[in-house]
Design a protein that fits this description.
This protein is α/β, with parallel strands linked by helices and 340 residues long. Helices cover 48% and strands 13% of the residues. A hairpin with a 5-residue loop joins strand 4 (277-289) and strand 5.
Length: 340
Amino acid sequence: MERLKYLVVGILALTLAGCGQTIVETLNVPQAPGFDAPGKGRTVVILPFADYSNAGNFDSAYRRNMAVAEALTDRFSANGFSMPVQEDVFQYLVDEGVINIVPYEETQSVSLVNELSNEWSDTMKAEISRYISGQNTTNGVNASNSPGTHALTTNTVAKIGRSFKADYIVRGRILEYKSRQDPTWEPWKKGILPFINGGTSRIMFGFASSDLYDQWNQQITGAVYGASIGHESDWPWNDDDSDTIFGMSDGENANAILWGSIGSEIGKQAYRSGDVQQAVVQLRMWIQEATTGNVVWTNRVDVKVTPESIFADNQYDSLFNKAIEKGVTTLVDNFVTTGL
């Protein structure tokens, strides 16, 4: 009784001590660049990236561009570069007629967006997304005003450079921005059951293009495992004295059917689990001299980010933020090393 009292008091103390909030604070530019930073005394203007990813609608395209611009701002700042406020650049481009503000209407596709959260196959979801994108990008919008079109003349580039007293103009493309299933079979990422059942299913049946066929493969594999367990002669209910189970004359066969059914259900659950989301981001970036418009550097990066284990954060925003941060860091560091 005394130990129970101490246990209750300890739990109450732990509960009271746990009241409050957990704060996670991140400073993307951890310290000011040094006196000899490679970009010290130089100014860059970051223009909106042309979006060819065909992922979502105008709203999501704007958010992708904003995420890329934020990452570029952090990385250029860390290397000592100066830059104007992004909203000022955007407003200047609108005032000069370089880009147009295109209204978008989501009410026509709200029901389709809701369907993306239902249990459709990846192929069906891709078709729904393509249809939503078509609705939001072709309804009365000229192709020259679309998010993927940002052609600039040399004179326009030079004018932007003079307006912001810049040394370089930063432009680029978003080539890919999508999520997919990581093809890995590492058990610490997929889980033990999906690893065992899914691997055996792939070896026995190969890959099926239909989700239903994949589910059947998993169920049959689980049933085979269960049947093999049910035929084990050393199970207590498989002794020689047992001659009827579930009304069947052969106890061993009945157990095989029982365990086969259990294995089939486990296979069905394994099919619905073990998903490993992967964020794929591919970027192309150009650096132009602000005075002449000449391209002084360009490169491309392809980044794929997956959780390290089943315990890691696998949320959509976390994976894509990490992919953008990694891709932008690689590009900017490569420019600083080889382009300056």
